[in-house]
Amino acid sequence: MLRRFKPRLRTAGLAATLTLAAALGGGIAYADEAKVQYLPLQTYRTGAYASSGTPIWAGRLDYFTYLNETQGGINGVKLIWDECETNYEVEKGVECYERTKGGKDGSPTAAVFPNADHISKALIERSAKDKIPVVTLAYGLTEAVDGSVFPYYFPAILSFYSEASSVVNFIADKVGGKDKLKGVKIATVYHDSPYGRETIAPLELLAKTYGFENIQIPVPHPGADQTAQWAKVRELKPDWIFLRGWGVMTPVAIKTAAKTGFPVDHIIGGVWSTSEEDVRPAGAAGKGYLGLTPFPAGANFPIHDKIKAEVIDKNKSDLRDPKSFGSVYYNSGLVEAILITEAIRTAQGKFGARALNGEETQWGLEHLNITEERIKEIGATGLFPPLKLGLHDHEGGGQAKVLQWDGAKWTAVSDWIHADTDLLKPLILEKSAAYAKEKGITPRTE
Amino acid sequence: MTASQDLGERRSIRSLDFLVAPAIAVAFAVVGFGVIPAFGNDYWLNAILIPFLIMSLIGLGLNLLLGYAGQASLGSGGFMAVGAYVTYNVLLRLPALPLPFALLIGGLVAGAAGVAFGLPSLRIRAFYLLASTLAAQFLLEWLFNQFPWFSNYSPSGLISAPRLEFLGYDLTDARGRYLLTLTTVSLLTWLAYNLVRSQTGRNWQAIRDMDTAAAIIGIPVGSNKLLAFFVSSFVIGVGGALWAFAYLGSVDSRTFSLDRSFTVMFIVIIGGLGSISGGYIGAAFMVLLPILIDRVAGALFGGAIDGGQIQNLQHALFGALIIFFLAKEPNGLAALIKTFAARICKPRSSS
């Protein structure tokens, strides 16, 4: 029986081999003289974290499209990108990184944005070896703030240590000063992953300094059922909850909190638990919920009008859900895009208006200085404060605001809150020094 | 086709096998150690070959236990974690010890863990045993997550290899990690190949086919079962250490979750129970096929269809392929390929 099919099977085998060769070998041939800049995009459009990621990429790609459409890219160098799906898995993330690190259409890869904490951490050594910066806005390995040990990793805007410290400072403000924190019970309900565990060390230090009671409650991935964790909350009766969720974990936490009777207006979401996409699915239960984030909500900044006119109204937007326009995550994508394009602009000032490689972009990132005037030019006044990065400061910002959800929109309920940088910096330097020692790295001085 | 014809055909394959096997081994060695490191680029080494080889090794490890000795286990992820965390701690705390010894110790401790969690196999079988190995998976994953000592108090619980070098050679680049992986995998595959053809391998197969009968003909059933757990977990442990340090670079305990154990089990079932090549074929299917589908889909529909939809279609296609191949040949892809090769190799005159 089988024998009759033999020729056909052979042909099929040959065809399969050719497809394989074409699929894997494709894209290696470069076109010369191409004035484009490649910025690959890692996505996870399916699974428990898709709801958080999708608006971020929309914000990012809409800004790229806006630059391409209105200004021909950056100084005439158009931005190009493609998507690689990671399913939010480290293995796939590494594969995507390896796939895209060689560049595309004649352009080297300028930088990578994993938008996934654990993937970014798996790329630390690889990217340093390949000299491609990994940019992680408001997430990622905190000790990489010390650029002398981590030259190619940028946890910009707000590190996790700063996030934890800002939350404590907000609570201090609410209870009437840092000296009143003594005895206050603060429970951190966190995603049990390298991302979630980042705040354990700073909170320990802050608790020791200010005397508040520090409770840590881990939620296993993906956090779709949190009955056990909120039963524990009920038992321990904390005064405040610092919720560090991601994806589906946040709405489930808010709903479960409401069910167990914990007051939602005493829950402060972290950066990755504070967007419309997190609270809308929680419905009425989310009313009064607080969230701390360096990114504002709303589509009323001048840049939004420009994007609406040039990108959205012309059907070139990457938005999957039009309601996400101007959401906190969408705006974080905008800030991410502004940050990298400004870094490329800075580097172009030194290396010329052409496609840049990772090493040149790293120079641009480390010399990035987005002033108030420049922000105004972009039309992003209020979207983020002026930002300056440097060799010893890959974070730059370190401040955030607390927003409150009224059931339909976010309202800022605090001014910019600063983290206790002086208190935390020694801890960060201690960790980066330990890393340098373990890996045998000599810290850079310039 | 008559029965005698069928028998004759099988015999001819066997004789071919005998002649071809060493030639294939030599060809693989030349290509694997010579051609690929010389011409392979970073993407092929880092993203395709290294994970493929390591998952093949881990599949092989479980195949020794499940395919040869007939003991089901869902603890593979846990044993991988033991290998990885022990190797990490040996490298960190005993810096004088060379890398191969750290891997060896990682494997031995994983083997010991395998024996400990294999003890229930003395009393229970099949699905009941499977359920008890789940305990290994959960306990070990929890252990490394819970006690920061294992990750040297790393703030995020991540571990990464302090150094990868052997006899003064730096193995941190793609080529070095590939050669480390290939050498380890070849060595262990060679050992496993000989082991299953030894008295021990025959004992395991006798126990797999009917343990009461095996006991009656004088095979020590209990010690052989535990030995199978030891050898299997040893191989899986070494594989786990390679997965952590030669492939990913840094991992946390979630890397070795139950999902990983299922993947390993699917590799064995799809590749072919009770065959050395099954692990390789299964790993190619489970590790490489999704990447291929992704790239083909990206090349065909990229930009035209929403990225999320392409992903869902890919998952559906991958699932359909699993069902198709298992329906076509329940004994796995190794058996399917063997039949196919036999058809092609068979002289035309006999048709």
Protein traits:
heterodimer, A: 446 residues, alpha/beta, Rossmann fold, 2 domains, 8-stranded mixed beta sheet, two-stranded parallel ribbon, 16 helices, 16 strands, 43% helix, disordered N terminus, B: ABC transporter involved in vitamin B12 uptake, BtuC, two-stranded antiparallel ribbon, 2% strand, globular
Helix-strand layout with pairing:
The complex is a heterodimer of chains A (446) and B (351).
Chain A: H1 6-25, E1 36-38, E2 41-43, H2 50-71, E3 78-80, E4 83-85, H3 90-100, H4 117-122, H5 124-130, E5 134-135, E6 153-154, H6 160-175, E7 185-191, H7 194-197, H8 200-210, E8 213-219, H9 227-236, E9 240-244, H10 249-260, E10 267-269, H11 276-279, E11 290-293, H12 302-312, H13 328-351, H14 358-366, E12 369-370, H15 372-378, E13 387-388, E14 399-405, E15 410-412, E16 417-418, H16 421-439
Parallel strand pairs in A: 1-3, 2-4, 5-6, 7-8, 7-9, 9-10, 10-11
Antiparallel strand pairs in A: 11-14, 12-13, 14-15, 14-16
Chain B: H1 3-39, H2 42-68, H3 76-93, H4 99-118, H5 126-146, E1 159-160, E2 165-166, E3 169-170, H6 174-196, H7 199-209, H8 211-216, H9 221-248, E4 250-251, H10 258-271, H11 276-301, H12 307-328, H13 333-345
Antiparallel strand pairs in B: 1-4, 2-3
Gross morphology of chain B: globular
CATH class of the largest domain in chain A: Alpha Beta
State which percent range the strand residues of chain A make up. Answer: 5-15%
Top-tier CATH class of chain B? Mainly Alpha
Name of the CATH architecture of the largest domain in chain A: 3-Layer(aba) Sandwich
Overall form of chain A: globular
Give me the Rg of chain B, rounded. 21 Å
In CATH, the topology of chain B is named ABC transporter involved in vitamin B12 uptake, BtuC
CATH architecture of chain B: Orthogonal Bundle
CATH domain topology of the largest domain in chain A: Rossmann fold
Residue stretches of chain B low in confidence (pLDDT < 50, at least 5 long) are: 1-5
Beta strands of chain A, count:
16
pLDDT averaged residue by residue of chain B: 86
